[in-house]
């Protein structure tokens, strides 16, 4: 397993074509309600992966990616597999 850094980042999951968005709890709780609303509007929460997953494919999530970049999220590009507890599990 490859170790990933903690923090706020996202990547395009090659298995699903959607964005997987990882966010620190403290950072999320400190966000204004309007910014938090972007996650519930454009994403669904996945208990299995412990992250937000875009409702649309990554190629159609232009607005969401722009907001994530504004919030300081790091774009980790394309990855295969699932990230849990800060480590990538490839499929």
Provide an overview of this structure.
The structure is a single chain. It is globular, with a radius of gyration of 12 Å. Strand 7 (82-84) and strand 8 (87-89) form a beta hairpin. With 91 residues, it is α+β, with helices and mostly antiparallel strands. The strands form two sheets. Strands 4-5-3-2-6 form a five-stranded mixed beta sheet. It has a three-stranded antiparallel beta sheet with strand order 1-8-7, with no helix packed on it. The chain has helices at 25-30, 33-42, 62-70, and strands at residues 2-3, 9-13, 18-22, 43-46, 51-57, 74-79, 82-84, 87-89. It has one domain (2-89).
What's the helix and strand layout?
Layout: E1 2-3, E2 9-13, E3 18-22, H1 25-30, H2 33-42, E4 43-46, E5 51-57, H3 62-70, E6 74-79, E7 82-84, E8 87-89
Parallel strand pairs: 2-6
Antiparallel strand pairs: 1-8, 2-3, 3-5, 4-5, 7-8
């Amino acid at each position: 397993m490859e170790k990933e850094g903690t923090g706020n980042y996202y990547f395009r999951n090659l298995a699903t074509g959607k964005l997987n968005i990882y966010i620190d709890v403290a950072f999320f709780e400190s966000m204004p309600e309007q910014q938090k609303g972007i996650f519930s509007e454009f994403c669904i929460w996945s208990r299995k992966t412990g992250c937000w997953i875009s409702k649309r494919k990554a190629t159609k999530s232009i607005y969401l990616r722009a907001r994530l970049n504004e919030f300081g999220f790091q774009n980790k590009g394309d990855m295969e597999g699932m990230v849990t507890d800060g480590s990538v599990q490839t499929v």
